[in-house]
Design brief:
By secondary structure, this protein is of the alpha/beta class. The protein contains 16 helices and five strands. It has two domains: 191 residues, no CATH class; 112 residues, Restriction Endonuclease, CATH 3.40.91.20. Helix 13 links the parallel strand 3 and strand 4.
Length: 342
């Protein structure tokens, strides 16, 4: 989050009411190239431009080239870009209108760019909508509410996204895990599994002595830290008992549950039968199998002939990810505690 805070400070400096009218090409370039996913915001434009942009994005040190493509698409009109950024941030019209105005008038001004500008200027007021949010939406069973099947959204849809993410923000704030929409983004980043580089760097290996109970304990700790109500060894339906349950009530979306079964040895047939019975609990959003990668592949193969409804609700979670998540959250809580004490 340190990098994000530096970016917020810089955005608020460059785009303040006193400075935005002086924003030149260098300032516009700094803003756009610092956003987390510039190319994603350009995908809704013409196929020819998209092809050029994708090719540019694959070249190391290609930010200058990307920005030049962006300028070319907008007739090198820095004044037009600046005025639309000013209207987006400081305009008096409703948010949906300002959002759609920018998207219409600035070629390459897609959802990731627009929400990035808004969020890094007003992190307590606006939220990012990007690949992380879309991927995490599937896990949270919020695909419809967060438009995870779309690459671009309009202003009205963005307002709806903010309403949904505000409920997640409120939960994180209640649990002392953050108070801005950037904290929500970090949470979505974790859920989306985008932190592969860190995981590879750590190269966490699952040891043979990782016991069933140890993994269950980690899942309970992670769920509790994330603000869920957690339970161990819960009977979900007749003949079905699962290792861990995370449950929460999210505003008018109602109660949701995530059911976890840890597979360390044992019968895969029995595992799948148990989860098939558990899925009759209507509040169960996902049925999560936790195991090493080799076992997960076997479970996936055994589940292939089963109903599509059941397979849609199955999630496969590598034990490495559980270990990594526990470490990440412990580090985050330690840093937060240190900041509060200081």
């Amino acid at each position: 989050m340190d990098e994000a805070n530096i970016r917020i400070k810089r955005f608020r400096e460059l785009l303040s009411p006193d400075n935005i009218d002086k924003l030149g090409e260098d300032g516009v370039k700094e803003i756009l190239t610092s956003l987390w996913a510039v190319t994603d915001s350009l995908r809704h434009r013409s196929p020819r431009r998209v092809k050029k942009i994708v090719q540019a994005s694959q070249v190391k040190g290609s930010k200058d080239k990307l920005f030049q493509i962006f300028l070319d698409a907008n007739g090198n009109d820095i004044n037009k870009i600046r005025m639309n950024i000013k209207e987006l941030i400081h305009g008096n019209r409703p948010l949906a209108e300002r959002y759609d105005n920018f998207r219409t008038n600035v070629d390459g001004g897609g959802s990731t760019t627009i929400t990035g500008i808004l969020t890094f200027y007003y992190p307590s007021r606006y939220c990012l909508w990007n690949e992380w949010v879309r991927k995490a939406a599937d896990l949270l069973n919020l695909s419809r509410e967060l438009y995870s099947n779309k690459q671009q959204i309009d202003g009205k849809e963005y307002e709806h996204v903010m309403d949904v993410l505000k409920q997640i923000k409120d939960i994180l704030e209640k649990e002392g895990l953050g108070s801005s929409y950037l904290d929500v983004t970090l949470f979505m980043y974790f859920l989306s599994g985008k932190d592969d580089a860190y995981r590879k760097e750590r190269d966490v290996k699952v040891k043979g002595d990782r016991k069933h109970d140890d993994i269950i304990e980690m899942l309970l700790q992670i769920g509790n830290t994330l603000g869920f109500d957690v339970q161990r060894e819960v009977q979900i339906a007749k003949g079905s008992r699962v290792d861990v349950v995370w449950s929460a009530r999210i505003g008018n979306l109602g109660s949701i549950k995530y059911l976890f079964e840890v597979q360390v040895g044992g019968s895969i047939d029995s595992l799948l039968l148990n989860l098939q019975k558990a899925m009759y609990d209507r509040t169960a959003q996902r049925l999560v199998v936790v195991a090493d990668m080799e076992t997960l592949e076997k479970v996936r193969e055994e589940a292939e002939p089963l109903s599509s409804d059941f397979k849609k609700r199955l999630v496969y979670l590598d034990v490495n990810d559980v270990i990594h998540a526990k470490e990440m959250l412990e580090n985050a809580m330690q840093r937060l505690s240190k900041l509060l004490i200081e």
